[in-house]
């Protein structure tokens, strides 16, 4: 079985940019809802809707990541099996 390490897909700068971008978007949306000239129940509804949307987005991203990782694990197991078969195969056997 090959011991190839899994490559990191994103840099620290990209991760930081994503975190800052999420924070700015969340704060801007929260301020927009807070300063909206509407009844309190309308602002509360919009706030809950935004929270639901954010949690749903995180859940969707996790499910997609988990499915992708499961596919990589299966392909790595299949690759290891193939390598083992090829290592054990003797093409000159029974000649």
Written account of the structure:
With 95 residues, this protein is mainly α. The protein is 76% helix and 0% strand. It has two helices and no strands. The chain has helices at residues 12-34, 40-88. It is elongated, with a radius of gyration of 25 Å. It starts with 11 loop residues before the first helix and ends in a 7-residue tail after the last helix. 0% of the residues are buried. The mean pLDDT is 85.
Throw out a few tags for this protein.
95 residues; mainly alpha; elongated
Question: Would you spell out the secondary-structure blueprint of this structure?
Answer:
Blueprint: H1 12-34, H2 40-88
Tertiary shape: elongated
Mean pLDDT: 85
Tell me the span between the first and last alpha carbons. 29 Å
What fraction strand?
under 5%
Short description:
By secondary structure, the chain is mainly alpha-helical. Helix content is 76%, strand content 0%.
């Amino acid at each position: 079985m090959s011991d190839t390490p899994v490559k990191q897909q994103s840099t620290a700068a990209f991760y930081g940019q994503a975190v800052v971008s999420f924070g700015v978007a969340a704060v801007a949306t929260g301020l927009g809802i807070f300063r909206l000239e509407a009844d309190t129940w309308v602002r509360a509804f919009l706030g809950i809707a935004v929270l639901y949307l954010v949690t749903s987005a995180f859940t969707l991203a996790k499910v997609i990541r988990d499915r992708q990782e499961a596919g990589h694990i299966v392909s790595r197991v299949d690759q290891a099996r193939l390598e083992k078969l090829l290592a054990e195969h003797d093409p000159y056997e029974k000649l």
